[in-house]
Amino acid sequence: MRVDFVFEFPRPTMPNVIYMGGFQCKPAKPLPEHLEEFVQSSGEHGFILMSLGTFVSELPAEITHEIAAAFAKLPQKVIWRHKGDRPVTLGNNTLLVDWMPQNDLLGHPKIKLFVAHGGTNGVQEAIYHGVPIVGLPLFFDQHDNLLRLKDRGAAKILTTKTVHKDNNFLKAIQEVLNQPSYRMNMQRLSRLHRDQPMKPLDTALFWIEFVMRHKDVYVFRNA
């Protein structure tokens, strides 16, 4: 199971369940030259990353314009995965991209915040690199994932119904940026997640090969 109890709530499990949460996470690689130049131009303020995953490339225009306007008011640079029309409220500090090396950006020393939909990959990569989240869940398990981080003081959650009202998006961004507890809590989760005797993928491979070696592993049966 793609589960790590740094992130999960306690649950009873049988001996034949092996946890391998965060198996896809890895140290960041150097960024492409144009992205490295952009994030370095952020100076002491750093940069914000926004992505809503592979299934959602754009939001309704009303929400998109509010998000772009909020980003324009920040001193940070912003890299935003957005494939729709260019928002009229977009500021000079925001770079729109069709694709980005998400893991490498999350692992960059100048990253300050991740605006994310709460998918499993993005959440686990944010934990691995210790980057706090402003969450905008859309469907599936995303709200559930973000609730776990909110409970640990590492994320702030918005909804599509309220994100574009009363400067809610800007307020959420500023809260997570300006309150050190969000980053401290996420970095603590990162330290706990990384402190394992084996990497999650190596653990999974060991137990797969264990079953292959021993065939009928009766000691793991639940009855």
Automatic annotation (TrEMBL):
Keywords: Glycosyltransferase, Membrane, Transferase, Transmembrane, Transmembrane helix
GO molecular function, one term: glucuronosyltransferase activity
EC number(s) reported in the record: 2.4.1.17
Record's subcellular location: Membrane
EC top class, as a word: transferase
Entry keyword annotation includes Transferase: yes
Entry membrane topology: Single-pass membrane protein
Keyword Glycoprotein: no
SUPFAM superfamilies, alphabetized: UDP-Glycosyltransferase/glycogen phosphorylase
Protein name: UDP-glucuronosyltransferase
Organism: Larimichthys crocea
